[in-house]
Design brief:
This protein has 467 residues and is α+β, with helices and mostly antiparallel strands. Helix content is 31%, strand content 23%.
């Protein structure tokens, strides 16, 4: 085992668990429970203000790393930024590192996560070997795929803290090299892009070179790029997108038959965080004059999200648009998964009916035959995650949730799935049909029979208000 200065050790963790159990027992049982933590990557604003706060600050560190077994014991509230900082010195990384630095390991498991290694490694919860969970009655159980809590282990992904809170996770790690070589390949139609995604995901190679990472960006219906990346030992140069350059703008520039682009492995893992994909442009950060003055330490997704949260609380942008006589806009902040065979059909719909760009694409396939009941993806099926985050102007008397409901309906029609980190509008019948209400009710009865925690529909659709 290896212990580094930012790691706490199992004995300290066990003491923190006992303190947390005592604190949890003192919380009122007649109000919702909410974790008191400094960051969030959820986009469900306006949750219940009367929730009791549970201090989980003792669970924000890496506990142990075993470089020989390629495993890590990690506190459930540890950010991937801190986890990666602890694993890279060992030449290792988590099998899937979500795009944003302050996503926590527990959050990526209970709320799902994805990144460009997902076409070969699945989703973050698939590399978890065991989870230590604080349940609603104050017990702490260890769930593994082969013990008496195996149903909780399988049902924890996509439960969003409604079955309990992860305090510790044991995860697998994989070896890395110092740098990553990126090739950007352009397509002029979605059908060809989807066919390439399917072929590359199956072969894990392109033009006789291995592909370790695969994602893409849609700038327009006829301007689509796949980014194929692989580990390398050495690089002729290293690009830095935390300064004046913006990563996503480099993609068309480096596309074609040139040498591609190179980044350190660490910089590649956080390439999207610096500008929150492309969303920093809403704050002027991509303007060269503003960018030169904007400190590097503030070019981070968590900074931008706090600005969005402030805007939601103050209603500033809506009022500004009103007084300027401009149409109101609907926030469309979603990630959806659609089978690769329906991917072009989804993009046609999105360009026609929504009209937002760019769009992120990330292929994924379950890592093995195991299924996860609350997010029922099919084994062997290749999906494409489409991510889109921004504002769409409303037309005429359109409802304020018009576009989000259109997307939900289309994804359901195409047999896809939608992540629940942002606003959702399903009816209860629709929701429980899509997210396996029967399996959820069994887990809820076993691990929260008194209903101390919100149920999944109340939390993800009712915005924590019990709707």
């Amino acid at each position: 085992m290896s212990l580094m200065s930012n790691q706490v050790g199992m004995a300290d963790h066990a003491s923190a668990v006992e303190r947390l159990r005592r604190e949890f027992a003192r919380l009122p049982t007649d109000s919702p429970v909410r974790l008191a933590k400094p960051t969030s990557n959820l986009f469900r604003f306006g949750r219940a203000d009367d929730a009791a706060r549970l201090d989980v600050s003792a669970f924000t560190s890496v506990i142990e790393i075993d470089p020989d077994a390629r495993t890590a014991e990690v506190g459930g509230m540890t950010t991937y930024e801190d986890l990666v900082a602890a694993t890279l010195p060992h030449g290792l990384m988590p099998l899937v590192v979500p795009q944003l630095r302050t996503i926590t390991l527990g959050g990526a498991v209970t709320g799902l996560g994805i990144e460009s290694s997902s076409f070969r490694n699945g989703l973050p919860h698939e590399s978890v070997r065991e989870i230590e969970v604080l349940t609603a009655d104050g017990d702490v159980v260890v769930a593994r795929p082969d013990n008496e809590h195996r149903e909780l282990f399988r049902g924890f992904p996509n439960s969003y803290g409604t079955l309990g809170y992860s305090l510790r996770l044991r995860i697998e790690l994989e070896p890395v090299k110092p740098a990553v070589h990126l090739r950007h390949v352009r397509f002029t139609n979605a059908e060809d892009a989807m066919a390439a995604i399917s072929r590359i995901s199956g072969e894990r190679a392109y033009e006789d070179q291995p592909v370790d990472f695969l994602d893409g960006v849609v700038f327009a219906p006829d301007d689509i790029y796949l980014t194929l990346a692989r580990f390398v030992d050495r690089a002729p140069w290293l690009s830095d997108y935390t300064g004046l350059d913006v990563y996503y703008r480099s993609i068309p520039r480096y596309a074609g038959n040139g040498p591609g682009d190179y980044m350190t492995t660490e910089a590649y893992l956080w390439r999207w965080d610096t500008d929150w994909f492309w969303c920093s442009r809403a704050f002027g950060v991509q303007n060269p004059a503003v960018r030169a003055l904007w400190p590097r330490r503030f070019k981070r997704s968590d900074v931008y999200r706090r600005l969005v949260a402030l805007d939601r609380r103050t209603d500033f942008s809506r009022l500004l648009a009103h007084y300027r006589g401009r149409p109101q806009s609907e926030p469309v902040i979603q990630d959806v998964e659609v089978g690769v065979d329906r991917g072009a059909e989804f993009l046609d719909f999105f360009h026609r009916d929504i009209g937002m760009s760019p769009i992120w694409m990330c292929p994924l396939r379950l890592r093995d035959e195991r299924t996860w009941p609350l997010y029922p993806l099919e084994p062997e099926q290749l999906y494409v995650n489409f991510g889109f985050w921004g504002l769409v102007p409303r037309r005429g008397a359109q409802a304020k949730d018009h576009y989000n409901r259109r997307i939900e309906s289309e994804v359901t029609r195409l047999g896809g799935h939608k992540s629940l980190y942002s606003d959702s509008f399903y009816t209860q019948d629709e929701f429980w049909h899509l997210y396996n209400g029967a399996a959820y009710r069994e887990l809820k009865a076993a691990y929260d029979p008194g209903g101390r925690l919100l149920d999944l529909y109340a939390k993800c659709v009712g915005n924590g208000r019990g709707a």
